[in-house]
Amino acid sequence: MTELKPKPKPDSIDPELWSRLQSEAKSPFRGLRQFVYVSCALSGAIGGVVFFFKLLAGRDLEATIPNLALQVGVVALMVFLFRIDRAKV
Questions:
Q1: Is 89 helix (H, G, I), strand (E, B) or coil?
Q2: Neighbouring C-beta atoms of residue 3, cutoff 10 Å
Q3: For 52, 53, 78, 79, which has the most beta carbons within 10 A of its beta carbon?
């Protein structure tokens, strides 16, 4: 199988645009992925606050503790994925 060589930069394209296009080609939909990570982390944080206050109030502890753990896990996973995605620049 032959290896594809990158084409040289055309002279008619702005250098800033060219670098942005190259970075998008290396990691497509990166901005969308990061938006999803941040959105899910914020959703998990809001849910975590709700379940934390239910836990403090002592209401329905059998269901509240696992739900709080799930929300904390979602936030931790999204932070982990966001950091991995940022490191691959």
A1: coil
A2: 4
A3: 78
Distance (Å, whole) CA 79 – CA 40: 10
DSSP string for residues in 73-86: HHHHHHHHHHHHHH
pTM of the model: 0.73
Average pLDDT for residues 70-74, to the nearest whole number? 97
Count other Cβ atoms within 10 Å, centred on residue 53: 12
Closest by Cα among 37, 26, 16, 29 to 79 = 37
Sign (positive/negative) of CA torsion 16, 17, 21, 22? negative
Across all residues in the chain, what is the average pLDDT?
A: 87
Which tokens sit at 40? 């899910």
Every domain of the chain and the residues it spans: 29-87
